[in-house]
Amino acid sequence: MDLDTLLSFDWGTMTPEFIILGVIAILSVADLFMPKHVDRKVLGWAGFAGIVLALVSLVSLIGTETTSILYDTFRLDSFAIAFKLILLLGAALVMLLAIDYRTNDGLEEYKGEFFYLFLTALLGTMFMASSGDLITLFVGLELLSIPSYVLAGMRKRNLKSNESAMKYVINGGISSAITLFGMSYVYGIAGSTNLREIAQVFGGLSDPQHIYILGLAFFMIFVGLSFKLASAPFHMWAPDVYEGAPTPVTAFLSVVSKTAGFVIILRILLSIFGYIPVAQEDGQPIPLLFAVQDYIAFLAGATMIIGNVIALRQRNIKRMFAYSSIAHAGYILVALTAMSFVTFDAIWFYMLAYVLMNLGAFAVIQVITMKTGSEDISHFAGLYRRSPLLAVGMGIFILSLAGIPGTAGFIGKLNIFMGALMVDQAHYVLVSIMIATTVVSYFYYFGIMTQMFFRPAASDEKIQLPAGTIAVILITVVGTILFGVLPNLAIDFMHSNFNQFVDFMR
Amino acid sequence: MDFNYFLTLLVFSPLLGILLLAFMPKANESGIKMLGVLATLPSLILALIAYFSYRGGNDLANFSEKFRWIQFGGQGAEQQGIFTVNYELGIDGFGLVMVVLTAVIATLAAVASFHIKKEWKGYYMLFLLLEIGMLGVFTSQNLILFFLFFEITLIPMFFLIGKWGYYDKEKAAYSFLIYNGLGSAILLIVIMVLFSRTGTSNIEMLSVMMNAENAPLFAPVSESLKMGLLIALLVAFGVKLPIFPLHSWMLRVHVEAPPSIVMIHSGILLKIGAFGLIRFGMGIFPEQFAELAVLLAVLGVINLLYGAFLAFIQTDFKMVLAYSSISHMGIVLIGLGALNEAGIQGAIFQVVSHGLISALLFFLVGVLYERTHTTTLANLGGMAKGMPLASGFLLAGAMASLGLPGMSGFVSEFMAFLGLFEEMPILAAVGTIGIIMTAVYLLRAVLAITYGKAEREFVGISDIRSFEWAPVLVLIGLIVLIGVYPAVLSEPLQATLETILMGIGG
């Protein structure tokens, strides 16, 4: 590749990534030269400014033609923009939480690393959203994973944090390896790593031997990636890691990292396995993806049941939210199973709602756990008396997570139900499981409500909130209610700007 | 006269009260209570305006309003006019009657809430939210909006029971939440199946589409699916109504919730079940409903007898009234099961009449409890000596409840049984035992309270005073008015009744 080719690429499509990359570089150098006693918070604010800048540049890219650069390995299509919006929004909020996060177990000295490792992980997720090639997909995945492992173990002198990093890195390594193994089959048969070329090759595939191998490849890729989603049966790491990791990292894992997981799954599944014909019906080929629907449906059901039922028994709020986030991965998998014409809408909207409500909840959790030094749910007792803002905010997030009307979470679920029921073989069982487990989730969600509103507080001392946390809570509360009452603000925005993601594979 | 936004104003006017309350200082008890009552007045006045303007010849269709709200599935779907959910409010005769009933009882219950001892501010805010939910339920023109309001009633009730109830309040709150949560979950499945199959959730459109020969459905709805959906509806609303054996939660709520909330609960919330069955069950699935008629009548008789016999052996006055509610809801089912004009009219009459009567009785329970701090029959006795007026009103309420001619209870029981005797004389004859039992248990309980031996000296007990006059007089006035001049109800209901009868084939 000579200089002319290099310059001929439309690098503007990568502006958001470049901004993040630049900020990472600046932060790491600044951290190196900054005197020890200077508060690293300023680095956090710089990082936040970088994310906002990237968000602005991304918004300005909306409506541009679908472009791909670097020989089709990096695509900027409506799908990429739509999901990067959510990723950046989530990351900005997490950054605010991270700035306000303090513990007494040795995080202070590493606060600088904390910020730029976090941004690196974000960069990975953005690459995943834009990749048009198996290689960039995998690089993005690892770019997300490796900083995540470090972040989980950031509280050096905390045993649980150490344990969580260890568990995360081993499990994560295995799952990456499995994904990569699955990808190697795809490459072996298609002879290319480019998603579009693969799709073309696979469209004309007829050798049953090949289809069999690709079936295996599908299972391996799906298994590997379901680790990132924390969906069953690869959810076991989540409770331990969520509990051990610093709270902002937990928030990041449960929101941004999970969104990235769905992004990569959609990319791979739709662009590769949506084109392999496995059988014929009425002269129409049935793609592999439809043939394995039952399998995904089974996993979705299992994920919802496991997540919601085990959450019932948790006393540790972070573990409870780990299981709750497993359950939510299950809900989104239902949308993936259905493969109706609203699947993209449903996943996008649900992710948006989930970013808002879950990050808001984690903001409250962070305040409470920092204040009391314990993660037991009983420390939420009497929160309403100590800080009405926190309690009402948390109440709204919980209602949204539980899918009560008037909140974004409800509209998200509605979208998923509709998708699952409108397809020709309506997924009645799956929808019933989803609804039944939602009712089960009332038990543990409203358990927090009981603590906050019914139980007396141990002390009546008012809780002071840092400015960043207040901002996060206000933004997420407003968003959760706004998209719950007027969901069309988001849905119309998506329809008019992303046009049903028609350019997804073109 | 221009009625734009009339219903929106009517439904959401309590919101103004909520906002004003939010700025009231917590300690200002009398101010908060006054504001709480005042905030229920706008919807009452508007409801009465609607009623009288309708009696004055104004068409109810003038009140309806409609805005585009949520669009699922992108512009393609929008152009075809499917998967659009509008914000649409409207009332027919039945809805009008229910709205008036709701507004009246809400205002009276707000007055009854003067007895609340703590945290008046939160109480009234939740109370007003509950009122919005109830008014919305009776005015929604599509199923998704209906569900939204339906669930909005759930959340305030959970808190109102769990925080302001009696000894076992949290358990009662949870049992309310879980039973009703399951009920609404089943309702949601029905709604979403209908929506995803037909592309619309408008109630009128649905009743046309489900019964037309070649309706343009998005996906087919088989006869067996329709039957399944109706049975699901029956279960969903059966929890609310409540139909035996789905009633156990309702007993707890009746006993543990504060009397002012039970006025609302027994007076209106239970009626949402009947409203739903009539509006959606009969409206959308008339043919299937006719097939289930016998089952409904049998369930009705079971409810009637079961409630009556168990009411007879209760030792607590609240339990007597709770079982009496179950028994009286049996009459609604009997009327619906009869499936002729008299029966359905009787059922709707019973819905309204029981709402007024149970509100009256529970208001008096509140008055009694306020003074004696007990509701056990054995501890009460000889109340006629200390509080002759209250005892007199209690007797009047009991008389209305057991169906004394000249009071509203008589009209509804008479009509319902008239209907059933026409269709299934034997079943109706069995049912009449329930009527006799009603007289027995009510007189037993009320006479024990008013004339029985005074077990305890209630020193310095005061009779009905100041603010307590208003609810008692208004309720008794309405009960007698309906009993003497049933046309106040039957005339607005006539049109609705004709529509229903036309649907089920006359």
Automatic annotation (TrEMBL), chain A:
It catalyses: a quinone + NADH + 5 H(+)(in) = a quinol + NAD(+) + 4 H(+)(out). The keyword Transmembrane helix applies. Pfam families: Proton_antipo_M. Its main location: membrane. It is found in: Cell membrane; Membrane. It is a multi-pass membrane protein. Its EC number is 7.1.1.-. Residues 131-432 form the NADH:quinone oxidoreductase/Mrp antiporter transmembrane domain. It comes from the Bacteria. HAMAP family: NDH1_NuoN_1. NDH-1 is composed of 14 different subunits. Subunits NuoA, H, J, K, L, M, N constitute the membrane sector of the complex. NDH-1 shuttles electrons from NADH, via FMN and iron-sulfur (Fe-S) centers, to quinones in the respiratory chain. The immediate electron acceptor for the enzyme in this species is believed to be a menaquinone. Couples the redox reaction to proton translocation (for every two electrons transferred, four hydrogen ions are translocated across the cytoplasmic membrane), and thus conserves the redox energy in a proton gradient. This is NADH-quinone oxidoreductase subunit N. It comes from Mesobacillus jeotgali.
From TrEMBL, chain B:
Its main location: membrane. This is NADH-quinone oxidoreductase subunit M. The chain crosses the membrane at residues 6-23, 35-54, 93-115, 122-138, 144-161, 173-195, 227-249, 261-280, 292-313, 320-339, 351-369, 389-406, 426-449, 469-488. Keywords: Membrane, Oxidoreductase, Transmembrane, Transmembrane helix. InterPro entries: NADH_Q_OxRdtase_chainM/4, NADH_UbQ_OxRdtase, ND/Mrp_TM. It comes from the Bacteria. Its EC number is 1.6.5.-. One of its GO terms (molecular function) is oxidoreductase activity. The keyword Cell cycle does not apply. Belongs to the complex I subunit 4 family. Residues 140-437 form the NADH:quinone oxidoreductase/Mrp antiporter transmembrane domain. Pfam families: Proton_antipo_M. It is found in: Cell membrane; Membrane. It comes from Mesobacillus jeotgali. It is an enzyme of class 1 (oxidoreductase). PANTHER family: NADH-UBIQUINONE OXIDOREDUCTASE CHAIN 4. It is a multi-pass membrane protein.
